[in-house]
Amino acid sequence: MESRTRDVTEFAFTDTGPWVVDPDELAWSDGLASVRASVAEEAAALLRRRRRPPVGRIVRVVAALARALVVWRFRERGTPRSRAGVSRRLRLAFERLGSTYVKLGQIVSAFEGLFPDELVREFKRLRDQVPPERFRDIRAVVEEELGGPLHEVFASFDEVPIAAASIAQVHGARLLTGEDVVVKVQRPRVGALVRADLRALAWIGPHLVGRIPVAALANPPALVELFAEQVTEELDFRLEAENMLDLARVFAATQQRTMVVPRPHPTLVTRRVLVMERMRGFAFDDVAAMHAAAVDTTAVLRAGLIACLEGAMIHGVFHGDLHGGNLLVEETGRTVLFDFGITGRLTETQRLAFLRLLLSGTSGDMLSQLAALRDLGAFPIDTDLDEVLHDLELDQPVKDPTQMSADELVSSLEDLMKKLLGYGTRAPKELMLFVKDLMYLNAATATLAPDLDLIAEIVHIHQYFLTTHGERLMREIGEAAMRPPDPDAIKASFLVPADVERLTFADLQERRKVILGRMGEKAPGRNRRR
């Protein structure tokens, strides 16, 4: 009885589950601290600079991408299907290159608004529509990991997967004890392929610095480092099961019971197989079905955003791979999260800097924001932040990019890029992971709550944190925590003037179209054949 009580009070699980999770009785959790440490050491070893590049893998990657681009150039370039065509061919090339590039494509698909819409749409298919492995190979992995034939554990096991993605695929099954489960199975040979690709990426990344300005700002070595740390952890499903428990604890501790985590099985978790509670619900973008079931989709979106912020700001832990393939919405309106292989973990110093960054962002304190970014690693530690503030004109009224000419836009961006690079600016890798989540939730607004007033919503969430965590925030960052949100500062963060009264996602999309259209007027070779 005590275990059952702990199961539903300590973790954000369903009210009644197929089994009880007692964290003191999970055989697969023994020694995971040392496992996580050894995985981190392996990632560091894979990233170590080598005198000679891994030529074989680099040649195969370049050849696959070049073949896709050459076919596009001669068949589709200059036609109405040019952008859709190159996007499709790149997606197919990523599929052929295997798990690492499928994972990279998934990351690209999360950055709606930064990459072309056609590319994002194609790469979204890499989330769960990758060609599956042969069932006999999947069966061999499961039987090797669980130490016996399928029929000794499962009453039934679906040969056709529910979904197939980069590292693994998921099958429906039923245990001999009668519980319906899903079984996540690692693709055969994926470990060796990922490690070879990481060595190649680690060699290429530093060579991009100083050659392409935007690449230098994006900090390619840090991107590769973040990717290596996350993908090597994904190769051990015991770590993912532990991530599930950690996030379930965070949601329970913050009373975010609108978020639900499937229970991992107490015994059927190994390095390459993860058996978990089967959950059902609506796809995250199936708005029509949710409305028919009287689900408040605005509340669903708000709960996801608060849970993501709360995990990072208060506990330093957050789901690091939010996208439609990893989310379901139950008829009760609760959101079910899946795929915890990528989980963001902030040190205490990073968490406090992150906390200051997000709270100062709604109050308009630009100097505090710069200081927080410096503490996260965006600027060298000895950077004169007052100089940055004035040099970047962050203490001046925001310029509305939709009111700027093409020449002004290009000149402004080039000037900003030059100044940022001059200060040694880099995108902190932990922040990049979190921003990816926010960009997905931002894009989800288009389907879940297209008429939501973004400014009013940010003010609402800011007030939630002050009401719910005010005492703790005061203790951790002082009076700055209690500054009221400034609507004008929030508008400035969206690059809209202060006289804008209401801002929806549709409004932002229209502004983006205007800016991109204006930028297109200055694109090199715009009048040449495409």
Plain-language structure description:
This protein has 530 residues and is an alpha+beta fold. Among the domains are: 139 residues, no CATH class; 173 residues, no CATH class. 55% of the residues lie in helices and 9% in strands. The chain contains 21 helices and 12 strands. A hairpin with a 4-residue loop joins β3 and β4. It starts with a helix and ends in a 10-residue tail after the last helix. 38% of the residues are buried.
State the end-to-end distance: 69 Å
Indicate the mean pLDDT. 86
How helix-rich are the residues, as a percent range? 55-70%
User: What kind of sheet is the major sheet?
Assistant: 6 strands, antiparallel
Radius of gyration: 24 Å
Structural class: alpha+beta
List the uncertain runs. 524-530
Number of helices: 21
Tell me the overall shape: globular
Q: Total strand count, please?
A: 12
Fraction in beta strands = 5-15%
Overview in brief:
With about 525 residues, the protein is α+β, with helices and mostly antiparallel strands.
Label this structure with key terms:
alpha+beta; six-stranded antiparallel β-sheet; disordered C terminus; 530 residues; 55% helix
What's the topology here?
Layout: H1 2-10, H2 32-47, H3 55-75, H4 82-97, H5 99-109, H6 117-124, H7 135-146, E1 154-157, E2 163-164, E3 168-175, E4 180-186, H8 190-208, H9 213-218, H10 220-234, H11 237-253, E5 259-260, E6 264-269, E7 273-277, E8 282-283, H12 287-292, H13 297-315, E9 317-319, E10 327-329, E11 335-337, E12 343-345, H14 348-363, H15 366-376, H16 385-391, H17 406-422, H18 429-448, H19 454-477, H20 487-493, H21 505-520
Parallel strand pairs: 5-11
Antiparallel strand pairs: 1-3, 2-3, 3-4, 4-7, 6-7, 8-10, 9-12, 10-11
Helix pairs in contact: 2-10, 3-4, 4-5, 4-6, 5-6, 8-10, 10-18, 13-14, 13-18, 13-19, 14-15, 14-19, 15-16, 17-21
